[in-house]
Each structure stands twice: as C-alpha cells, then as structure tokens.
Amino acid sequence: MDYQGAISILAAAVTAGTPIFYASLGEILCEKSGNLNLGVEGMMLVGAVCGFQAAVLTGNPWLGILAAMLAGGMLSLIHAFLTITLKASQVVSGLALTIFGTGLSSFIGKKLIGIPAPVKFSKMDVPVLSDIPLLGPILFHQDVLVYISYLFVIVVWIYLYHTNWGLKLKAVGENPAAADAAGIYVARIQYVHVFLGGLLAGMGGAYLSLAYAPSWLENMTAGRGWIAVALVIFALWDPARALLGAYIFGGLDILGYRVQALGITVSPFLMKMIPYLFTVGVLIFISAKKGKHHTAAPAGLGIAYHREDR
Amino acid sequence: MISLLKIEKREINNPYILTAIRMVGIFLAMVTGGIFLQFTGHEPLAVYRTMTEGVFGSAYGFNETIVKTIPLLLAALGISVAFRMKLWNIGAEGQIYVGAIAASGIALKFGYLPAYLLIPFMLLGGFAGGAVWALVPAVARAWWGTNETITTLMMNYIGILWTDYLVFGPWKDPNGFNFPITPEFSETAFLPAFGKTRVHMGIIIALLLAGILYVFIYHTILGYEIRVAGENSEAARYAGMKVTWNILLALFISGGIAGVAGMTEVAGITHRLQSGLSPGYGYSAIIIAWLSRLNPIAIVGVSFLFGGLLVGGYAVQTSGLPASTALMLQGLILFFVLGGEFFTRYRVICYQNKVAKREGDVHGLSRSN
User: Fold this and answer.
1) Cα separation of B326 and B318, whole Å?
2) Is B21 in the same domain as B113?
3) Which residue from A92, A230, A279 is facing B290, i.e. has the nearest CB?
C-alpha cells in the first residue's frame, strides 16, 4: 500500500470513528454521575432519523443536528426519570430505551428510506493546519462536525478535571451519599448528565445520517451505540482515550470496504464481524487485566441512590 | 401550609397486586401509544381494532400468533434462566441464529436419516449451537468478571453476520435464483405441523420446556440454589455453592434453550436457513422474561400476548403503519411497567407541614430527591 492509500484509510477511520466518539463522550458524562445508560443505540437511531427528517424539512443541516440532539436528550430523560426518580433498574431501563428507540426510529423513518440527504456536511480544509504533513490530510481534511468533536474533547476534559462542577460530578458518581451530605444536589446532577449523554448520542446518530452515510436506513447504527458503551470501559472513562479508541473502531469499521478495494476477496460479512469481535476481545482483555479498570469506574455506577439508605 | 413528599421503602409481594400493577402499566402504555398515533395522524382506536382483529379475527391470525409465540417463548425461557442469576444475557438473538445454523448444518448434511433420528439430532444441535454461543461471554464472565451485557450483545451481530456469510456464500442454494437461502431440507427434517396450518410441533417442545423449567426452578434443590445465588451471590458462596460453575451452567442452559428456538424456526417454518430468520425475537424475549418476573408459567402467557402484538403489527401494515409500531409499543410497555415497579417498592407520603416534625422526617423533608 502506498503513502496516499495509508493516509486515506486513516482519514476514513477518523470519519467513521466520529459518531462512535460522540456517543461515547456522552456516555462518559452519564456514567461519571453514576448512571449507566444502555439506551445509547436507541438514542443514536432516533437522533439519526430526527436529524435527517429535520434536514429534509428545513434544508438546514444545523437544524438537523439540533433536532437530533433534542430527540436524544428527550429519550434520555425517560431513562433519567425511571432510574433517578423512580429508582428503577438502570440495565432494564436502558434496554427498554434501545428497544423503544429502534421501533420509534423506524416508525418515523418509514417515509425517509431511499431519499438522498438534501443537505449534508461536506469535507473542508482547515487553513494552515491541513498543510501539516501526515496529520494535516488525516485530521484537518474533514467535515465541520469532526472539528467540533476535537473541541468537545478539550472542553469535556477541562470540565471533568479542572472545574468545580467536574469535581462535584465525580463526587456524585463515586459516593452519592457523601456528596448529598456535602450539600450537592445529587439527583439534579445526575439528571443533567444523563441528559448531556442523550444530547451527544443524538448528535452521533445525526453524524451518521447527515455526514457519514448521508441517508436514512433502518437500524443504520448497526451496534455502534453498543460499541460506544464498550468504548467507555476501554477508555477508562477518559475523553481523550475515548477519541483514540473511537478511531481504532472506526478503522476496523472501514477495513472491510478497503480490503475489498485492494482486490482481496474475503466475504464482506466476515469483514463486518471484525469490530464486534474486537469489542469482545478488548472487553475480555481489560477485565482480565483488572486493577486499573476497577479504579477507573465510578464506584456508584449502576446503583440507584436512595437517601434513606445512607 | 406546605405539603411535602416523602418516599418510604416498603415491599409488596402479593402476586395479585403485582400482576394488577403490571396490567395497569400495559394499559397506560397502550394509551400513550394511542396518543402518539393520534399525534402522527392515525386513528388509535382503529389501529388497535385492526391489531386485535388481526389476531383474533380469523383462524389464520390466531394460528400465526401461535407460530410467533413459539420462538418468543423458547427465547424468553432461555433468558429467564440467566436473569435468575442476575446474568444479563441479552444475546438470545444471536443464540437463535447460531442454533439455527447448527440445526441447518445437520439437516443439510444428514438429510438421509429418518425423522425419528434427524429431528432429535437437530434439536441437540440447536441447543449446542446456542449454548456454545453463550459460553464465550459466560467463560469471560466467570473467569475474569467481564461484563456480559455488552459481550452477549456483540455476539448477536457476529451470529447474524455468520448466518449471512453462510447463506450468501458456501451454503447458498445453487438453484435459489441468487436468494440468500440454503437449499430446502429433506422432508425428514421438517417438524410436523398441525393439519394444514403453520403451527408446528415446536409449540409442544416449548410448552414442555416451560413445564420442566417450572418444576426445576421451584421444586428441585439445584433450582433452589440458583434462586438463592441469584438473590445473593455472597450468601450462596457462604453456603458452599460454586458461583463460577453456576454462572457457566446458567448461561449454557440459557443460550441452549434460545438455540432451540432457532432450530424450531428452521425445522418448523422456513425449512431452510435464510437471512433475516428472526425479526428480533431475542430482544422481545428480554421484555417477556422480565414482565413475567422470570416465572416460566407466566412467560407462556406473556409470550402469547407478544406474539399477538407482532401479528397485530403486521396487520396494521395494510393501513400504512410500519410493523415497527409493535416494537415501539413493546418498549412503551416496558417503560410503564418499570415505572410501576416503583410503587411496589416505595410508598409516597404527602405530609402537611405540622406532621413534618415527626422524628426522623426532618432530613427527608429538606429537599426532595
């Protein structure tokens, strides 16, 4: 493979990884508050279809993104209400959200199948930066949503590690009872971060339907929401590692198409298995290593907080 | 006077009240679904009537509901075994597919065997296929504590892609006009059907399994152990139960039963392996198992209800609604029943200000959580 070929594969990996990254970043924020939301797949699907529908109606891709985020956010609030206020099982509620989202998205999207996106996010060079050898064409010859994702890594990283809010969030996720005793509004913080998770999952979905595909297909996320949840563990709840991990998954995602283009005849179905096999392998590897993984997970993850239990 | 809310723990175990709460949940889900349908320009009552008529309006509809009940019932029974141990096996969909692959492989290779040998062989194969598929996440969970929720789910995609690989590739019917299907099995591999309907012997297998599981869970020592281990793994460990072994066993059986659903589908309905064999039975089965509180007898009833929901979903397609309407309603039902659980575990007390001074309430009242 020549230099140009390698560059184009890496650039495509960044594009393919971006929707997974958005969803993963949202799930990190959600899980940092101690809430596990397995509804990412459902929220991404609804985000994808609502974003596409809004773009078709308004002709404005930004309104599409906005609609997708709101749709993902609304769905996440169902999960938040059930798990935070009604203290229902987070696992079951998240599964319900994915099943509901899958049904809802194909309900809304029935008339949208086969329509090409009227508008989409196209690639554009960033002046100066795109001229950097190697990195330029990989990282800075992308669409604007990819650039926004770079921004988000930095913003969320600062938020988590260098602000008072980030500290409060961590307290809630690690020990809600102690946080409550310290005067932090536990439920409010959890609601906000579950909602942020929904917004970002919706955005990840819209990236698929408005930039990556760009079109609407039933179940077009194809498990990316679940991979995003796995990626959070892989990334040890760290946004920068999530970005890197998302690109690895993105690379595996496109590998199938690229290998075919090189004239190697492997069944496309076998190639498509790779990201899922890799996810299983990585999860097993991480848990076999233990140690670091155990300290990285928020201690209160998955447990409903009931203040009378203190 | 300010009235304040306080949430207090309680536990309701009365099965009638629990069932009633679930019924109310299902009813509210249907109402919400109706509002949504109205909002999107459909006639909710007409849609529900079409759905009901689709199921009960004709012998065909009723038979089709039984046909859909079979895989749902088997998959839900399988899932319930794992859920009892608090193992989140959400991989039934993949286990169905791999069970179907194994059964199909046997049917295609040993088609010359007489039915009384071939059918049990395929059943065993279906069980083994699903069981092995669940064993990968099971081993990882038992040895290294790998979260089985995501691994079982990932195995779904791999199983479905493997099926596609086979029916588009090495197993494709050379005379199938390029459709993604294998050649039809020999007739000795067909599960006998009842009369001229599509209802096949799978329903007997499924009901039998439900009975066996019921007896096993509620009337044997090992079943008791599994129930205890599921409630409290620490207590189980103290009592000398081998938790690691139980994890492997529970997921093995769980996947195996789901695999049987794959076998009954190919042997009873399609008579060949084909792409898109299961339209998400494995996912609906999660809801069924949970709604039934993992009780095998309840699972039979709820599976029939969900089979009806699927057939009703197909019926409304004629009026321009997508079949996914049924999936949406399933999700809504789960939301409402999940929300209803709250009232079985907590009571909400509304205080007037003067009573609030009662001992211990002061903290609870400062903020509502």
Assistant:
1) 14
2) no
3) A92
CA distance A62 to chain B (A): 24
In a domain, B50, yes or no: no
DSSP A245-299: HHHHHHHHHHHHHHHHHTT----HHHHHTHHHHHHHHHHHHHHHH-THHHHHS-T
Residue B307, in any domain of the structure:
no
Query: Which residues from chain A sit within 8 angstroms of residue B88, using beta carbons?
Result: 91
Query: What token pair was written down for A37?
Result: 């939301």
For residues A80 and B10, what is the distance between their CA atoms, to the nearest angstrom?
22
Per-residue pLDDT of chain A in tens (310 residues, 90 and over written 9): 577 778 888 888 999 999 999 999 999 999 999 999 999 999 999 999 999 999 999 988 899 999 999 999 999 999 999 999 988 889 889 989 999 999 999 888 888 888 887 777 777 777 777 778 878 787 887 888 899 999 999 999 999 999 999 988 988 888 888 888 888 888 899 999 999 999 999 999 999 999 888 889 888 988 899 999 989 988 889 999 999 999 999 998 888 777 777 777 788 888 889 889 998 998 898 888 865 555 678 888 878 887 766 5
- Collect all residues of chain B within an 8 Å Cβ-Cβ radius of residue A269: 161-162, 164-165, 168-169
On whether both B150 and B223 belong to a single domain, the answer is yes
Is B275 in CB contact (< 8 Å) with chain A?
no
Tell me the whole-structure pTM to 2 decimals.
Answer: 0.88
Indicate the residue among B250, B268, B299 that finishes a domain: B299
Q: Which CATH class is domain A3-120+135-304?
A: mainly alpha
- How much is the CA Rg of chain A, to the nearest whole Å? 19
* Minimum CA–CA partner of A109 in chain B: B322
Cβ contact B154–A110 (<8 Å): no
User: Which residues of B fall within a CB distance of 8 Å from A95?
Assistant: 90, 286, 334
Which amino acid appears at position A78 of this protein? Answer: I
Facing B335 at nearest CB: one of A82, A107, A269: A82
Longest dimension (CA), chain B: 84
All structural domains of chain A with their residue ranges = 3-120+135-304
d(CA B31, CA B332): 10
Domain that holds residue B18: 1-42+321-369
Residues B247 and B365 in one domain: no
**Residue B305 domain-assigned?**
no
Residues B334 and B194 in one domain: no
Residues B161 and B93 in one domain: yes
Domain contains B313: no
Residues 54-113 (B) with a CB less than 8 A from some CB of A? 88, 90
